[in-house]
């Protein structure tokens, strides 16, 4: 059934497609760039369609190349994961998760103790760089946790929860805000589409006239800095009900007019199709969904 498949050429194609470089693929496969180029030419001749556009100093997949890469990468990944499950696991399994620093610090890490208690043999590594990772190109990351308005039709995903924004502060600051205009704390978003003009939207919905009097504003690059400023009593923060949940539960922050909430986006857990069957990934997905349900009930 598979006797006529050019497996060596397919392996070269997968590597070159994922890395978008014949040279990098050659290094990964321990062959020469000429050998990789020859294998891909052979595959293109065998298929009768071009798989790459050869551009100056780079290559780009054609539509046919994209289709072949998606199916081939998923199939090879499935085989590799099946092989891993057959090998003796002396030191347990590893799992690499990519997410934002704020989500890791404010929601994920405080809960990870429960995951480790349930799965002591899984070694988890967090990648909190800001760059958005292309999971089809970077096989080093097993799963990403993303905050976005977008859909991801080419990935396997689970929607964890939708987010809303409210105003929070220390108990003292919330009490004072009933009598005077507070200092307003916000976050400078890396992607302004996700949440633009946040304070304006909240004030319009609440009827507060704080912005009319040119209040003192404090702006931070990251959500956890803004929350720490609010906990320290420096003002009221416009914050995600998800990311603020631990601080509210511990009494460090309380909601100001908690009935007024502005819609945000949603958090999803995503991986390359097929990878969700890998035991550590499957375990993490199941744990995440359980924690998301607990968080959802606590926020109601």
UniProtKB/TrEMBL annotation:
Signal peptide interval: none
A biological process from GO: positive regulation of biosynthetic process
InterPro entries associated with the record: LysR-type_TF_proteobact-type, LysR_HTH_N, LysR_subst-bd, WH-like_DNA-bd_sf, WH_DNA-bd_sf
Keyword set includes Transcription regulation: yes
Keywords: Activator, DNA-binding, Transcription, Transcription regulation
PROSITE patterns referenced in this protein's UniProt entry, alphabetically: HTH_LYSR
A Pfam family: HTH_1
GO molecular function: DNA-binding transcription factor activity; sequence-specific DNA binding
Family: Belongs to the LysR transcriptional regulatory family.
Protein name, UniProt field: DNA-binding transcriptional regulator, LysR family
Protein's organism: Pseudomonas moorei
